[in-house]
Amino acid sequence: MSAPAAVAGARPPMPEKKPVKFSNLLLGAGLNMFEVTTLGQPLEVTKTTMAAHRSDGMAGAIARVWGRGGVFGFYQGLIPWAWIEASTKGAVLLFVASEAEYYAASFGASNFVSGITGGMVGGLAQAYATMGFCTCMKTVEITKHKAAAGGAKPPGTIETFMGIYRAEGIRGINKGVNAVAVRQVTNWGSRFGLSRVAENGIRSFTGKADGEKLGVGEKILASALGGGLSAWNQPIEVIRVEMQSKKEDPNRPKKMTVGNTFKYIYQSNGLKGLYRGVTPRIGLGVWQTVCMVALGDLAKDWVEKVTGEAVTAKH
Predict the structure, then answer these.
(1) Is a pLDDT exceeding 50 seen at residue 12?
(2) Is 70 a domain residue?
(3) What is the C-alpha separation between 271 and 11, in angstroms, rounded?
(4) Residue 95: which domain range?
């Protein structure tokens, strides 16, 4: 057998399985905690308020949130739900995405396809492991009717959680988790794909070779475009909020599913209602990008000094 023939018939080398390091998990958790504690939660609260109260525009939603407690109204649901979600996001998402990407590559998938596969499977695992009950409790706190309006003391965070658990069990706590899973899968798939398309466009515009590294500003631009354009799936987010909302409406389906919730929103508010909250969601995607990309290098240096491990996590 000739050498070329042997090479042609050879099995492609197995991809290297990258270890999930503590420093990677610490970096992801730290950046996510910073992001949500600064602008992340105010944008999340505004987005959720608009999705739940679809007659409100941006100004109306901001006024509604402010009326609930001034500046603190914009941080409703931060502690503990947004903090739990942010701190576990990196661990669950990174670990599962890394495993899924490795196995997809081992079956012969390209880097592009295996990367999207890893992101989608990681997003799915994150939704069912931690994000379902966290988003549900955040939405409940943002949309519940305040007992204080009638002069009574409003229920606290844990009291609200236990009340739902006693009345509806685990299903009540995880209400809307299927919509969360659909959103996460489409989010990570489209963000990854659209960001890569934007990166290729930037390379072409700037004359960089294929595969050549982009500068920090170029990476922020590409990721922001990918994050912003991935808001095409906002109807899934509005459906998720409606399923988890505690607002009172006798016209809502008694047993809400993704399908009948979509029908209810469309019949009540039309196509425009399905895209309520898309503006703050785009802003949220851009802020997340700035945190993960622009602050990522500084965070990596700090984590390496503290842990002594080289951080290999991709932005």
Answers:
(1) no
(2) yes
(3) 51
(4) 27-146+153-307
